[in-house]
Amino acid sequence: MELKKNPKADLEKRRTMMFQIGLIVSLGLILMAFEWKTPDYGGIKLPPPASCNIPEDISVILTKQEAKPPKPMNATLMRITDNENQQTIDLIIDAGIDPGEVIPPFVAPVITDEAPEETDEPFVIVENMPAFPGGDAALMQYLLSNTKYPHMARESGISGTVYITFVVEKDGSLSDIRALREVGGGCTSEALRVVQAMPRWIPGKQRGVPVRVRINLPVKFKLI
Q1: What residues are paired with 78 via a beta bridge?
Q2: Assigned CATH topology for domain 76-101+122-221
Q3: What Å distances lie between residue 163 and 123, 178, 197, 220, 221, CA to CA?
């Protein structure tokens, strides 16, 4: 039996034409690939990166501050008028302590819970120190009202600090009044006189018991 092809199903006639079409499409794609250009971004400028300058060495300078000495206590000024010569004298009476003066060190006694022993030796520091009636302000006012600048010291221009020591007894009276440091021209005698005329103090107490206590009082005489 002889096989016959259907003329419509014969593809040999279209083979050459299909090959040519494929070749043309391939060549066209190759040309397009060569002609393709990458977009140019050269016109766009990016900002420069931020710079961060870190110092290599960091120096810390510490300034040493010198401790300032405490300010001296304000002296109290009293104006005295000499009726004979009609002269006005400024008298400074200072019951404070000058920070510049050299004072020997003091060793405080050991305070125990035991009751104080009976002794005639006065204490230097106790729990409740003696006080002038009315406090320090009243003591200063008393000195201002009763101290007179000696005539001899005023005429000679003598000034200085008299240190008076005394013992406040258990009943508040003063005893053993004497000068530890003297100033000429009658200043020492005047300071002793004023202290001897003082009223009774409030006595000091140790563990609630009145005791004898020694007090040192500086009195400064200065002409302005």
Answers
A1: 91
A2: 3.30.1150
A3: 18, 9, 16, 9, 11
Q: How far apart are CA 131 and CA 198, in angstroms?
A: 12
> Please, are residues 151 and 186 in contact by the beta-carbon 8 Å criterion?
yes
Across the chain, which distance is largest between two alpha carbons, in Å?
A: 180
pLDDT tens string 103-141: 555 555 555 555 555 667 999 999 999 999 999 999 999
Closest CA to 200 of 164, 171, 177: 171
DSSP 69: P
- CA angle at 100 for the pair 96 and 101, rounded to the nearest 5°: 75
Phi, psi (degrees; rounded to nearest 5) at 207:
55, 35
Number of CB atoms found within 10 A of residue 49's CB: 6
Q: Tell me: the pLDDT tens digits for 9-41?
A: 556 666 777 777 877 877 777 877 777 666 655
How many residues are given for the chain? 224
130 by Cβ neighbours in 10 Å (0-12 / 13-18 / 19+) ranks as buried
Q: Check if the beta carbon of residue 191 is closer than 8 Å to that of residue 219.
A: yes
212: amino acid identity, one letter = R
Q: How many CB atoms are located within 10 Å of the residue 133 CB?
A: 13
H/E stretch holding 190 reads: helix 187-196
Number of H helices, E strands in the chain: 4, 7
pTM: 0.50
Nearest-Å Rg of the Cα atoms of the chain is 55
